Task: structure prediction
Amino acid sequence: MPGSEWRQIKVEEMIRRGVLALNDGYRVRNVELGPVGIPFVRGGDIGDGRINTTVDDHILPEFSTRVQSKLTQPYDVAFIAKGTVGRVGIIRPNQPQSVFAAQVCYWRSLDHEQLEPRFLFYLLTSAEFQSNLYAVKTHGSMVADYVSMSDQRDFRLVFPPIRDQRAIAAVLGALDDKIELNRRMNATLEAMARALFQSWFVDFDPVRAKLDGRSPPGLDPATAALFPASFQDSPLGPIPQGWSVEPIGEVVPCVGGGTPSTAEPKYWDGGTHHWTTPKDFSSLQAPILLDTDRKLTDAGIAKVSSGLLPAGTLLLSSRAPVGYLAIAAMPVAINQGFIALKCNERASGFFMLNWCQENMAEIESRATGTTFAEISKQNFRPIPMVVPPKELMAAFTAAVAHFYTKITTNLHQSRTLATLRDTLLPKLLGGELSVSALIESMP
Result:
């Protein structure tokens, strides 16, 4: 153990001393849920250290008294205890009070002079805690993995003195704070790009302004000149004069992918070509794909009908689930769970990304299947879309390109910071790095 003051303590003892509280989630009834009230957070809303409280389901106001004892507090540390056991997140001070679902457990520091809440978060993300979970969780084909509250109370974890806890939390927290700042910045940049797409290609604001005899606000004369001053009829309703309505498959090539035999090492061993599945998209913080979990060899690429797709290809997951979207930042091959849009000057990747986001309900409505929904290329290609002239497409692409460049830069930086954090975490908790030296270096 790192030092005499670092103690391995049974969680039950921390509870008995009034330092720590363990809580489980709320077994909700469908009648208690609605669009307004207290956010109801499920296991799927927890991941990458974050807890999403901007959810669809809420505990309705008339049932709020039933959940008072289950309301979250800032710095509650939650993890999935049933299902995908182990994913951890922390409630941030600016998040609303929420209620966790039954498959979630959450730990709370009751005495910040003995247990630093952010240290508690890092302790629960550590290999030590995760190995505790793995050792006791139930396994079985008929039931989901599960870790009981009594098992959690039996855990023995290392708790350093409060000054060391704060030093560890400060170092790792600074990295996570920058990652969170990048995430919020990226969300703002995405919203700006979507707002411009909405204005130009959904609401047709510049056309309406010119139709009213006004100069389109916020546009330079050269860009304003690219918009007409009138509308024409179309199968989708009035659209700007000179624009067209065409099936998406006639505007951009739409291709699928495949999975080379996993029993053939020559397709995988030592592979250097990115190959992606929808699983890679489940944790994306922005619609840019920077890396993939698996790689293919040249022989493996030859087994994928669509081959290696160029950087800038837009990828749409076509099943499990329908609707994940990302632009590939590098050449990539895909499995059969995607429709890849090989964008061009008629419809750029940035345009098609925003078009798919805007029209996701239409895309999902064309999915079929009883076991799970899937949209085939045959059902996707005929979807009609409004296509502006190439010159206007180029102007939009240029206008939003710097947004997505900055998003990509932020993602790269966040990956570097996350790698550093994940490298430091076991060294700090295991005492390989001197906590006292960290304390001395802190302002």
